[in-house]
Design brief:
alpha/beta; about 350 residues; globular; 17 helices; 9 strands; binds coproporphyrinogen III; 7-stranded parallel beta sheet
Length: about 350
């Protein structure tokens, strides 16, 4: 598998061997996804219907021949399996009934959680039989901090007031929730790897809002504990960690968490990161999803710059966050064709970037 070769340090001779996949590659920007999604109104039932989930997982692979599929599921399935009341509303996103006290974790036995999440294992098994052998299947979970924000806020938030209050004022309660999420995340990842996931990924989508004084405990240590827990169960699949919004010491983050691949968002300057991170650490990222929505030269130049910055290290091409809902699918096809084409053809798109504005020498 091209993506596993890269993670193992075989970076190939030219950039056409850069493995490619996209966060939220399955989603509402694809007409075939929208058609499939319309057959089940409730999003959780849809995720748990393994026939539909296999189809949603494979749709972007059929269209773009990407190097990895990501199992169709959601980071909020753990809170759902724990017994939190979760629903998804059109235009509003996820809505959870927040507990009055975050210490009031629904008492759910780990066995019950495993049973409730078993359909995801089934999706992985079925997908693996239909996916070409040279393509990787990625299983995932959310990082504890990120998942805790959805539980405590009751959904997506602008300012994360409740989560931060809980963190600063109610540490034992907050830690109780984080500990439970770590335990369940380990079980969920182990189950996905045992079902056939080749790679695992931990999404810390809200790492960027953790106050600095707490970053070590709630961004580094939480992910480190999950990875150690997964390894203690003899799972060897590489683990990608995505601390979105974090912009501190990435080398320390990789060394502390022991992740195999560092995924970065689009606010990180590739050249800056490349200069500070030891050369053997694989990086995944980091095209701005908006550049793909815009398409054309903007997108291609930005993609070429990213490949260029990371050309001497293992690099997996991806976006800096999920594919936007309004992305034209043909832009994605153009991007993949461009990345797979020999570099000599790529340079022609870059002339305008080097042109000086009128009148300048
Ligand atoms: O291709 C893939 O990446 C598919 C699998 C996938 C989904 N969610 C499906 C989904 C993955 C990897 C996720 C991760 C996820 N879910 C994250 C981490 C990545 C990120 O975006 O930061 C987060 C924070 C969530 C929580 C979540 N799920 C939200 C906030 C929403 C609503 C926002 C939205 O886009 O509607 C969801 C719903 C969701 N999860 C959709 C999809 C395709 C859209 C809902 C639909 O199709 O009806």
């Amino acid at each position: 598998m091209r993506i596993l070769d890269t993670i193992n340090g075989n970076i190939g001779t030219d950039s056409t061997s850069v493995p490619i996949w996209f966060m939220r590659q399955a989603g509402r920007y694809l007409p075939e996804y929208k058609a499939l999604r319309a057959t089940t109104s409730d999003f959780i039932s849809y995720c748990l219907d393994s026939d539909k989930a296999v189809e949603a997982t494979l749709q972007p692979i059929r269209r773009y021949d990407l190097d990895a599929a990501i199992v169709f599921s959601d980071i909020l399935l753990i809170p759902w399996a724990m017994g939190y009341d979760l629903r998804f509303e059109e235009g509003k996103g996820p809505i959870l009934t927040p507990p009055k006290n975050p210490a009031e974790i629904p008492e759910t036995a780990p066995e019950a959680i495993k049973t409730r999440l078993a359909p995801i294992g089934k999706t992985i098994k079925k997908t693996r039989t239909q996916l070409a052998k040279d393509k990787a299947l990625i299983g995932f979970c959310g990082a504890p901090w990120t998942v805790s924000t959805y539980i405590i806020e009751g959904g997506t938030s602008r300012d994360f007031t409740k989560t931060k209050k809980c963190l600063w004022q109610n540490r034992p309660n907050f830690n109780h929730l984080i500990d439970a999420l770590i335990t369940h995340s380990i079980e969920f990842l182990v189950m996905q790897a045992r079902s056939g996931a080749d790679i695992l990924m931990i999404f810390d989508s809200w790492a960027g809002i953790v106050p600095g004084a707490h970053q070590k405990s709630y961004i580094f240590e939480t992910t480190a504990r999950i990875i150690a827990g997964v390894r203690a169960r003899n799972i060897t699949a590489p683990i990608i960690a995505f601390p979105k919004g974090f912009c501190g010491n990435f080398t320390d983050y990789v060394q502390t968490t022991k992740c195999d691949v560092l995924a970065i968002d689009h606010t990180i300057c590739p050249a800056w990161l490349n200069a500070q991170l030891p050369k053997n650490i694989p990086v995944q990222g980091n095209l701005d999803p908006m550049a793909v929505e815009i398409g054309g030269k903007t997108m291609l130049e930005c993609a070429a710059d990213i490949c260029d910055a990371f050309k001497t290290r293992p690099h997996i091409f991806n976006l800096g966050h999920g594919m936007g809902q309004h992305t034209p699918p043909e832009n994605v096809a153009e991007l993949v064709n461009f990345l797979r084409a020999p570099e000599s053809t790529r340079t022609s798109t870059r002339t305008s970037k080097r042109e000086s504005p009128k009148g300048e020498k």
